[in-house]
Fold this sequence. Notes:
By secondary structure, this protein is α/β, with parallel strands linked by helices. It contains nine helices and seven strands. Strands 2-5-1-6-7 form a five-stranded parallel sheet, with helices on both faces. Helix 1 packs across helix 9 and helix 2 (41-47) packs across helix 4. The chain is globular and about 60 Å long. The model has no long low-confidence stretch (mean pLDDT 87).
Amino acid sequence: MSNFCLALSGQKQNGKDTVAGIIKPLLDKEFNQFELTSFAGNVKRFLCNFFYEENGIKKKVTKEWIEEKKCVENFIPNGWNMSVRDALINIGDRFREINEDVWIDLALNPIKNRIITDTRYYNEIINVRKTYKNSCIVRIINPSKRIIEGNRSEIDLIKYDNYMINGIPKDSIYDYVIINDGTLNDLESKVKEFFNYLMNRWKYLI
């Protein structure tokens, strides 16, 4: 039997990780264990080779430090020339100039069920579909958090959001859209609706 992959797409702070946290235990009950992963995971691991200065002491970057600092606006670590988020983007982009699919090749593993929490590029979507026969690509949109221009990691797929707020176009690259425009309870209800859709799509393959 082929394994399954749920790929979550969306701009930053639109709810991808929250959706993953809600749906993972639901999927785990019906399928073999799903593994949470991200294309940026290996980018973060690369950044962990760097150091920064704090109170005159040189410290090594950790994953926990990255998660804490990456969303802090206007924070540039001592000894750096850019923010943590911009450093992650630059590492990702520079390596893609060498090999467009470098982070994809490192992240995808067709022998495991996976939830990918940061599917932002078109070529990532294409490779998910190529790697996993049983895949589902979901766009998560929070209308209050949408940006028209932004990080290079955000803009490849942003043009689709305007169309999908009112429904999925026939030629959409996505299978499903979750509009995250309410409370956490509202989002949980929408994720459960999506889970029912997913079960109808995948249940005969279990």
